[in-house]
Design the sequence.
């Protein structure tokens, strides 16, 4: 009997094998999407994007592979419909696993990007590590630009933001991060804001999102204060500060040594303590000059004051103007006062909370320039 | 040469059955019940489980090389023993069917979206059948090898996830005044430790029994630690508010991270899928073995492999019965309540009877 | 007189090639019977006939003949007429005379011997080069020469109803676990076969189940390998006419252990062991992983890799599973061809393989360059194992896994791998689990296995359950 059972089993396996391969699809039989744009055009959802175009290895030559893309576009009342419209004009099924960036159009972002993020979250082949940015231009135009850098727009954007993040000058907000942020009780978040600057795609600043809706844009120049609080990898942070002192100008490279955020809850008002220890390195002076010890201390204070101002400015803006916590303080509040957090709405108490900022700067080196050159030398 | 189950193999069989499917959805369950502090409840659940593991172990150690079928007969009259064994059979059988189903559903939803469920479950069951007919010593070895692979693989994954996670997500860690709440919450988490009932059907040698305790209780402790790592790693990346929406919490977490330094394995979900399939294979395998073993004790004149064929085929069809994912989950809920009987109630009753009998003997 | 006739008749019945020489003496005739093909005739005339004729005038009985006349070292007397046939077919000469019941069996065997030559299967950089030959005596003498222990035992059996091949079991009595000796003895005595021509026959006899895929006996061509194993507490089996000795029991991890690991640098030994384990997995799984990634789970690769992969495949008309199976088959054909080829045309295979199949097929766009790399890598990996027999099942199972992966992706891959693990863990060799060391896990054994350093591991591997655990 068992022998027969084995025979039957083998038959079944063979039949599965012959009918099988349900999910089987070679990668070259799929449209590999490099970047996706989402926008709203007259109440219609517009998808646009770049699809990798594969040339056979002979024709490819020296050109970078990532440069070969073609653009797609489709419209529909809902995501589903837009996608359906796209599919009906497409030779192969879309493959989203290689997507590097999702670009939200400004108009769409104003109405809220939450729904699309949820869609990404539940689409199996979509990576949640895909970068999400807001664009000044329409994504369909932005993704269509000729970058002249021999690289697809999607990769270009990813590389720009990735590089800036490494330098601590921007944040790299993946869809996954945003989803976590949304879940956090009524807190806002920021996303990179990109657009065209003199025919070049570039990073313009940070987009402030409240309830997943775009409410403001912080210009790149004013983001440093914010990044002191947001940057994830402290050691990579590189801020530049130029201090004018008398007739000279000093350029400093600032890095964060320690960041401590503590929230106290006193008399129904949260007090946010921000402790920042900064290290500054004197990159160069505009004119060579002695730097006395006294001056160093003075400069340290000056730097601290400036940085404090920057942070204060942005927090005030968030409290007064946005009425929304975009710094992730909510999480610190939860971590330190879970009971109060569960009872209260952070968004309501955040605008009234007190903020105490302490910035301490230390000039740790002067970039190997000898500042104690014997005075004789200069006199001569 | 006489083959024996080593103590390590016994502990790995327990590991295989306990962890199984739970690896993927445990973080969601724990975060739902206790948020960031859910791990404390896990600690309590571990302690609770260790207590009952001790009871079952000491029970089977007083009857070395026997399984529940034999010693329940000694301790109770044969009618009750019969009922208990039938209950165990039903429990193992249904949990194996439903485990197969939910596994295949999850596989279908996550990696093989177009493949019909019956193909996945058939493949799984054929492989399981091939393992079951080699009986417990082979199963012990498989569980040992796979257990080690699962542990190394998942611990690598957990640490990789921790690297990407944020410390602040894990806070608050612990609050003293919440202690009663933690204990209360551990009530629902303790179901993740179901699986120790397999000890009732493993033949355990008498000699150096302290080692058995050391290995098996140590393994339960390790599972607790393993679970905590699992939960904390997921929360560190996703945040406790977010993770409660994911049945496939660990996979969802892995899809959120991308470790650039690891080059071509920077996306870790491939490794996880391999590890997870291995772990569900182990748990389904052990459940099928338990069913077949107990049935073959009742029908001694039918050969083991015939019963194995029978159980696998019936199990295959029953696993296809529930219409939806939700239904399967409901049935699994009921099964896990049955599990309480098999882990807590029956062993305790038998344990008490055994102690009483011993005392009676002594007093005489 | 009757006795004489009977014997002559009996002898002639055995074979008409039997030559019976009559030596006439003064007191009666002495007969000498042998098969000229098997015997050393110079020896017979020099050492038997000559001395007998010298004593022509004396009265000689068998006893005297045996002890004081013939010059043959290996001679004895017997009277069992039934054994006559066996003796003479083995190349002995029979001396009998008309007036005695006994006969003398003199060893005048002549065999065509090959000189001891360097090994061909187990080539190494650093190890003794004396490989076994087809002569049983030479082989046993090589072992005796290395192990001068009084408890070295050599049990000899005669197997094969027609070939009557000598099979010798060699072990050290006070180390080896007697259960193994008993089991091997039992298996050998149960054999009913007409002929044993090579050690491979015995290898199959020792298997538990004819359908087991993995080898459970080690093959050894070098005498130092066998000696090392015997010292470890294993049994060496030598077969007359085979230049390959068997070593039992041998478990899975030992197949990845080369003799020179023990002679060479400690760290190199560890490194090369990891290398071999990796190669084993690579040889088994690489092509399947390719299929799984290209056709099912492309998203587990980073985007740059996905694009590169898709680009490399764009002009290929086959789908990945056909491509993988095709290339693996071609690689296997190349391997098979290269074994059969005479040495002089050997390089031709390299040219065909590298240029025609590798270069031209990619250039023609029939297959993708990546699969060429993968298949050649997996083939290269399959040559790494010191004992090639472990790789033969892997070569076949590879196709099973590719097939399963083609249907079910990574799930199929894991299931296929699991099937192999199940099979491996169900095997036992002489009662020892085949995966010993790994399952049941013995950390000490694994440590010693990896270190393969005689000074660091004072004890013999515990899974062998030897009588004497300590290496002294």
Sequence:
């Amino acid at each position: 009997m068992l022998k027969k059972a084995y025979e039957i089993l083998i038959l079944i396996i063979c039949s599965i094998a012959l009918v099988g391969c349900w999910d089987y699809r070679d990668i070259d039989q799929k449209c590999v999407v490099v970047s996706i744009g989402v926008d709203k055009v007259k109440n219609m959802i517009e998808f646009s994007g770049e699809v990798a175009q594969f040339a056979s290895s002979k024709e490819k030559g020296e050109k970078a592979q990532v440069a070969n893309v073609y653009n797609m576009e489709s419209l529909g009342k809902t995501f589903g419909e837009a996608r359906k419209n796209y599919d009906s004009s497409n030779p192969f099924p879309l493959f989203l696993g290689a997507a590097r960036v999702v670009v939200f159009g400004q108009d769409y972002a104003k109405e809220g990007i939450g729904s699309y993020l949820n869609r990404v979250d539940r689409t199996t082949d979509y990576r949640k590590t895909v970068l999400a940015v807001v664009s000044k231009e329409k994504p369909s135009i932005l993704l269509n630009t000729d970058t002249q850098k021999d690289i697809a727009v999607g990769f270009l954007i990813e590389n720009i933001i990735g590089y800036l993040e490494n330098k601590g000058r921007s944040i790299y907000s993946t869809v996954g991060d945003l989803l976590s942020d949304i879940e956090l009780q009524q807190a806002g978040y920021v996303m990179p804001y990109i657009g065209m600057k003199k025919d070049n795609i570039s990073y313009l600043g940070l987009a402030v999102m409240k309830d997943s809706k775009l409410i403001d844009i912080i210009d790149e120049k004013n983001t440093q204060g914010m990044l002191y609080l947001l940057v994830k990898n402290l050691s990579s942070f590189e801020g530049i500060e130029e201090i004018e002192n008398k007739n000279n100008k000093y350029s400093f490279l600032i890095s964060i040594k320690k960041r401590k955020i503590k929230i106290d809850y006193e008399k129904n008002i949260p007090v946010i303590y921000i402790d920042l220890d900064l290290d500054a390195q004197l990159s160069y002076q505009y004119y060579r000059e002695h730097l006395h010890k006294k001056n160093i201390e003075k400069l340290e204070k000056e730097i601290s004051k400036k940085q404090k101002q920057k942070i204060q400015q942005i927090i005030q803006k968030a409290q007064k103007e946005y009425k929304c916590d975009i710094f992730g303080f909510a999480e610190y509040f939860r971590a330190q006062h879970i009971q109060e957090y569960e009872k209260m709405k952070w968004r309501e108490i955040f605008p009234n909370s007190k903020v105490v900022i302490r910035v301490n700067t230390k000039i740790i080196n002067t970039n190997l320039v000898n500042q104690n050159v014997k005075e004789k030398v200069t006199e001569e | 040469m006489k083959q024996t189950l080593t103590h390590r193999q016994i502990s790995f069989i327990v590991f295989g059955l306990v962890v199984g499917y739970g690896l993927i959805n445990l973080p969601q369950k724990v975060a739902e019940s206790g948020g960031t502090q859910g791990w404390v409840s896990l600690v309590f659940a571990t302690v609770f489980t260790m207590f009952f593991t001790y009871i079952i172990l000491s029970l089977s150690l007083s009857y070395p090389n026997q399984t529940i079928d034999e010693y329940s007969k000694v301790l109770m009259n044969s009618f009750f023993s019969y009922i208990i064994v039938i209950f165990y059979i039903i429990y193992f059988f249904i949990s194996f069917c439903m485990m197969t189903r939910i596994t295949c559903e999850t596989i279908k939803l996550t990696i093989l979206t177009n493949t019909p469920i019956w193909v996945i479950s058939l493949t799984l069951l054929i492989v399981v059948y091939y393992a079951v007919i080699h009986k417990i010593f082979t199963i012990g070895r498989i569980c040992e090898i796979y257990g080690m692979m699962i542990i190394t693989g998942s611990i690598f994954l957990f640490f990789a996830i921790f690297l990407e996670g944020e410390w602040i997500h894990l806070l608050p860690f612990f609050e003293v005044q919440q202690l009663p709440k933690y204990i209360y919450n551990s009530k629902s988490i303790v179901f993740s430790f179901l699986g120790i009932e397999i000890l009732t059907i493993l033949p355990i040698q008498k000699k150096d029994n302290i080692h058995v305790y050391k290995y098996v209780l140590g393994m339960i402790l390790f599972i607790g630690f393993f679970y905590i790592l699992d939960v904390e790693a997921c929360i560190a990346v996703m945040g406790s508010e977010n993770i409660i929406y994911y049945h496939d919490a660990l996979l969802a977490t892995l899809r959120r991270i991308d470790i650039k330094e690891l080059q071509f394995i920077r996306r870790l979900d491939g490794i996880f899928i391999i590890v997870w399939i291995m772990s569900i294979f182990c748990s389904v395998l052990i459940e099928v073995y338990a069913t077949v073993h107990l049935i073959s004790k009742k029908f001694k004149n039918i050969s083991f492999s015939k019963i194995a064929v029978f159980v696998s085929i019936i199990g295959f069809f029953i696993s296809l019965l529930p219409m939806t994912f939700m239904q399967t989950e409901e049935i699994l809920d009921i099964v896990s309540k049955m599990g309480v009987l098999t882990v807590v109630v029956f062993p305790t009753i038998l344990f008490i009877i055994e102690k009483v009998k011993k005392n009676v003997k002594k007093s005489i | 007189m009757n006795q004489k006739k009977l014997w002559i008749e009996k002898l002639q019945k055995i074979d008409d090639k039997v030559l019976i020489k009559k030596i006439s003496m003064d007191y009666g005739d002495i007969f000498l019977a042998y098969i000229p093909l098997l015997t050393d005739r110079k020896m017979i005339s020099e050492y038997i006939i000559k001395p007998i004729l010298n004593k022509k005038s004396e009265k000689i009985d068998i006893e005297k003949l045996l002890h004081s006349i013939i010059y043959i070292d290996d001679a004895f007397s017997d009277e069992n007429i039934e054994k006559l046939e066996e003796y003479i077919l083995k190349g002995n000469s029979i001396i009998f005379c008309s007036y005695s019941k006994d006969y003398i069996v003199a060893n005048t065997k002549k065999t065509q011997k090959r000189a001891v030559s360097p090994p061909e299967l187990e080539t190494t950089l650093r190890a003794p080069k004396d490989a076994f030959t087809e002569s049983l005596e030479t082989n046993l003498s090589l072992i005796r020469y290395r192990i001068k222990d009084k408890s070295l035992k050599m049990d000899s059996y005669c197997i094969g109803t027609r070939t009557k091949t000598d099979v010798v079991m060699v072990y050290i009595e006070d180390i080896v676990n007697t259960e193994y000796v008993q089991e091997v003895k039992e298996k050998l005595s149960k054999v009913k076969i007409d002929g044993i021509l090579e050690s491979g026959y015995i290898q199959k006899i020792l298997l538990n189940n004819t359908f087991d895929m993995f080898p459970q006996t080690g093959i050894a061509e070098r005498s130092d390998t066998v000696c090392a194993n015997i010292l470890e507490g294993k049994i060496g089996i030598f077969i007359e006419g085979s230049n390959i000795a068997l070593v039992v029991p041998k478990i899975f991890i030992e197949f990845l252990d080369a003799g020179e690991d023990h002679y060479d640098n400690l760290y190199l030994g560890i490194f090369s062991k990891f290398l071999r384990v990796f190669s084993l997995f690579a040889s088994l799984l690489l092509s399947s992983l390719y299929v799984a990634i290209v056709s099912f789970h492309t998203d587990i690769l980073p985007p740059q890799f996905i694009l590169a992969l898709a680009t490399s495949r764009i002009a290929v008309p086959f789908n990945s599973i056909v491509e993988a199976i095709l290339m693996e088959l071609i690689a296997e054909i190349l391997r098979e061809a290269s074994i059969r080829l005479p040495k002089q045309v050997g390089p031709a295979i390299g040219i065909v393989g590298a240029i025609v199949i590798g270069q031209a097929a990619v250039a023609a766009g029939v297959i993708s360059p990546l699969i060429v790399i993968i298949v050649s890598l997996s083939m290269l990996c399959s040559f790494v194992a010191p004992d090639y027999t472990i790789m033969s099942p892997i070569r076949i199972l590879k196709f099973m896994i590719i097939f399963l992966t083609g249907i079910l992706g990574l799930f199929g891959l894991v299931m296929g791998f699991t099937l192999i693990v199940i099979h491996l863990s169900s095997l036992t060799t002489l009662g020892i689990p085949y995966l010993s060391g790994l399952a049941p896990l013995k950390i000490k054994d694994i440590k010693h296995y990896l270190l393969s350093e005689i000074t660091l591991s004072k004890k013999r591997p515990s899974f062998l359950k030897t009588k004497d655990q300590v290496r002294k």
Summary: Chain C is about 50% helix and 10% strand.
